[in-house]
Design a protein that fits this description.
The complex is a heterodimer of chains A (436) and B (297). With 436 residues, chain A is of the alpha+beta class. Helix content of chain A is 25%, strand content 27%. In chain A, the strands form four sheets. A six-stranded mixed sheet of chain A has the order 6-7-8-3-9-10, with helices on both faces. Chain A has a five-stranded antiparallel sheet with strand order 13-12-11-14-20. In chain A, strands 15-19-16-17-18 form a five-stranded antiparallel sheet, with no helix packed on it. In chain A, β11 and β12 form a beta hairpin. Chain B is mainly α. Chain B is built from twelve helices and no strands. In chain B, α8 crosses α9. Classes of the chains: A alpha+beta (436), B mainly alpha (297).
Chain lengths: 436, 297
């Protein structure tokens, strides 16, 4: 058991590429922290630095209070689960799981006992004498987990451990990993590119991009209060819809319609010295079929007509996709990157808007429908820096409850406190794209 | 291989090539059978002639018939009783095994570095080893002779082992690095995380997985040492270090005035036996070694 502290850690490869740029992260003892981001964002490099498989160029890494920058992996007392599982093909499951203990010259009886115990927990007892080649994907994954837990290490590091499993097994193993971590209470750092995994597994999630941590917070915090465009677009499935908007003469012109600028938003814009051109972000669930919205609610948002391209019925909800061609292309380095990464996103990315509607909606494919967008929980971003302007409001905490007050027709009640998001190093600044 | 380029009639060629080898037409079978037979016969007749010679009596050496009129083991008993051949045979086995062992150990370390690490001068190292492999040995014989004379290595086992290791290394590095490259790097990382030192990671995880590659390399290097003639004849002067192929020239007949054709043939057969044995039993491994890295899987 130990805490892990990354203190201004930087990784520069010999060819000059900057993979990890001055990140700081405190991981408490027993915490489950997820590093998430698109490929090439430096999350695996960060994990390898914690593991000791990569040297740290600058900064300090402390595990359990001790600086371990120059310690070999074997002296750090951490176990790692690899994406490919990296099971030793020439050893049986028993030998695989006991290998670390054998190297540590643990007495044979102790090894047997620990391996049997781990095998029991992971339901591998009947496979102990088989070789990895004869196991299924899920079993191999469990052996890899078993190899980590028999050592009873100070921390677990997991590098996309579920990404080689098929979708159904992955969901199953996800709960398994979560249960195991709670049961053992071991500090865990988990790397993934899948935001769903990040949201469901972690106590805290660190979103990374270009070697920098964009934001650290609980999954709900990241979802409700994204610091910048990148986090807003990365977290959430389907992704947030982004629309270019212009502030002019106390009015916010959005492609969906014009709304008067509220005093609160105006103050936020002034404080942030925001340009006239902005990007607004609306989550799919903030849309609704206009017919289903009570008349007194309608004033909290915009009602607009859209032609429904595709309608997906999920049973519990209906997703409708409508064309955004009435919208000028949203330009931002961060959105560009998200679109490139959208292979992992559930929706087509920047091409269409998506709205989650109630199942009783009358909307149908190929027909015009009247939709309503709730603007109370709308986010407003500076397209240049990518910063979430609405969060810079003094009463930032109110935002998380939906009472953001931004551009709603009726000014909502002032927020409770002045709780600001703790500023993280490297937050927001959308520097020139650097890929590790 | 048999059916791919068969040209008899356009129609049959097409279907045959599409079906690959196994279902050739009767006519193609005959054509290819004949061609194969000629090629194999050309290659094997000298070998068979040599075997035949080795069983002939000294007086029948000039007998043109293929099958000996009178079979005799005399040539074999004769060469296996003289130290002129037995001692070189022992030399060959000893020098071959030692040179192979050293080559494989050094080559596996070097190949591991070549496959895994990025270090300055890596391409130079690979280039140098390739250069050594390509270098005409005849150009090196004279300087090597002078060097070994000066160092007192001439006509000793180390005097042959050292050059054999030098020429075996490039071959070993090439084949082994191809094998190492196929071992996922994550296994080694996993071993490190499990608490292994780099040496333990190599000996307990990487080397067992590369064992097939090492066996293949060992066979190839041993065969090269076994067959080597030029250095063996140039860097030795007595049976103290002379290897079997070089000793053939020093065999004598049953009397001083007999041409030792029979004993030479018998010795050649004895030298060939290990090669045949190796090739038959390790055919697959040798092919795997020669083509490793060329095609994936």
């Amino acid at each position: 058991m130990a805490d892990i502290v990354l203190d201004q850690v930087t990784k520069r490869f010999p060819d000059g590429a900057l993979a990890v740029d001055n990140i700081s992260l405190d991981i408490a003892d027993g915490e489950f922290v997820i590093l998430v981001g698109p490929s090439g964002c430096g999350k695996s490099t960060t994990l390898n630095m914690i593991a000791g498989l990569e040297d740290i160029s600058e900064g300090e890494l402390r595990i359990g209070g001790k600086v371990v920058n120059n310690k070999a992996p074997k002296d750090r007392d951490i176990a790692m689960v690899f994406q490919s599982y990296a099971l030793y093909p020439h050893m049986t499951v028993r030998e695989n799981m006991g290998f670390a203990l054998k190297l540590a010259k643990t007495p044979k009886s102790v090894i047997d006992e620990k391996v049997s115990e781990a095998a029991r927990v992971l339901d591998l007892t009947q496979h102990l004498d088989r070789r990895p080649a004869n196991l299924s994907g899920g079993q191999r994954q469990r052996v890899a987990m078993g190899r980590a837990i028999v050592r009873d290490p100070a921390a677990f590091l997991m590098d996309e451990p579920l990404s080689n499993l098929d979708a159904k097994l992955r969901v199953q193993m996800r709960t398994e990993v979560s249960r195991l971590q709670r049961r053992l209470g071991t500090t865990t750092v988990y790397v993934t590119h899948d935001q769903t995994e990040a949201m469901t597994l972690g106590d805290r999630v660190a979103v990374m991009r270009n070697g920098m941590i964009q934001q650290v917070g609980s999954p709900q915090q990241l979802y409700d209060r994204p610091d910048n465009l990148f986090v807003a677009g990365f977290i959430g499935s389907p992704a947030m819809n982004f629309l270019p908007s212009v502030v002019d003469n106390n009015t916010l012109h959005t492609p969906l319609g014009d709304v008067p600028l509220t005093g609160r938003l105006q103050r936020a814009l002034e404080r942030a010295k925001a340009p006239r051109d902005l990007i607004i972000g609306i989550r799919p669930e903030d849309f609704q079929d206009a017919a289903l919205v009570a008349a007194d609610e309608q004033s909290n948002g915009i009602t607009f007509r859209a032609n429904i391209d595709v309608l997906e019925s999920m049973g519990s909800d209906v997703y409708v996709y409508f064309s955004k061609d009435f919208v000028n292309e949203v330009k931002s380095a961060e959105l560009q990157e998200l679109a490139e990464d959208s292979g992992s996103a559930d929706t087509g990315g920047g091409d269409a808007m998506v709205a989650r509607l109630d199942t009783v909606t009358q909307a149908a494919e190929g027909r015009d429908s009247e939709l309503w967008a709730d603007l109370r929980s709308m986010h407003v971003f500076n397209p240049v820096t990518g910063k979430n302007i609405t969060l810079d409001e003094g009463d930032g905490r109110a935002a998380s409850t939906g009472g953001q007050g931004a551009s709603t027709a009726t000014d909502t009640a002032p927020g409770a406190g002045s709780g600001r998001v703790p500023a993280d190093p490297g937050t927001g600044s959308s520097g020139t794209p650097r890929r590790g | 291989m048999t059916a791919v380029s068969a040209p008899p009639t356009t129609a049959t060629t097409k279907t045959a090539t599409r079906r690959t080898g196994t279902t050739t037409t009767g006519r193609q079978k005959v054509t290819w059978g004949a061609i194969n037979f000629v090629v194999v016969a050309l290659a094997l007749i000298p070998v068979l002639w040599m075997i035949s010679l080795s069983f002939k009596t000294p007086s029948a050496v000039l007998d043109p018939s293929f099958v000996p009129a009178q079979w005799t083991w005399g040539n074999y008993t004769q060469i296996l009783q003289t130290s002129t051949f037995v001692r070189p045979l022992i030399n060959s086995i000893g020098i071959g095994l030692i040179a192979t062992f050293i080559s494989v150990v050094l080559a596996s370390m070097a190949a591991y570095a070549v496959a895994r690490l990025r270090f300055p001068g890596k391409s130079l190292l690979i280039g140098m080893s390739l250069l050594i492999a390509m270098f005409p040995i005849i150009a090196l014989v004279t300087p090597l002779f002078a060097i070994e004379r000066a160092l007192g290595l001439f006509n000793t086992w180390p005097g042959l082992i050292i050059p054999y290791v030098a020429f075996g290394l490039p071959l070993g590095i090439y084949t082994l690095s191809a094998f190492f490259r196929e071992i996922p790097w994550e296994l080694e990382k996993a071993a490190k995380m499990d608490g292994a030192t780099p040496f333990q990671a190599f000996t307990k995880v990487i080397a067992p997985l590369a064992a097939p590659g090492m066996v293949t390399t060992a066979i190839l290097v041993f065969l090269a040492c076994w067959n080597e003639f030029l250095l063996a004849i140039s860097l030795t002067s007595t049976t103290a270090a002379r290897t079997a192929p070089a000793s053939l020239a020093y065999l004598s007949g049953s009397s001083q005035f007999t041409i030792p054709t029979g004993p030479i043939a018998a010795a050649a057969v004895v030298i060939t036996i290990p090669i045949i044995f190796f090739v038959l039993f390790f055919q697959r491994r040798i092919v795997a070694g020669l083509t490793s890295g060329a095609v994936k899987g």
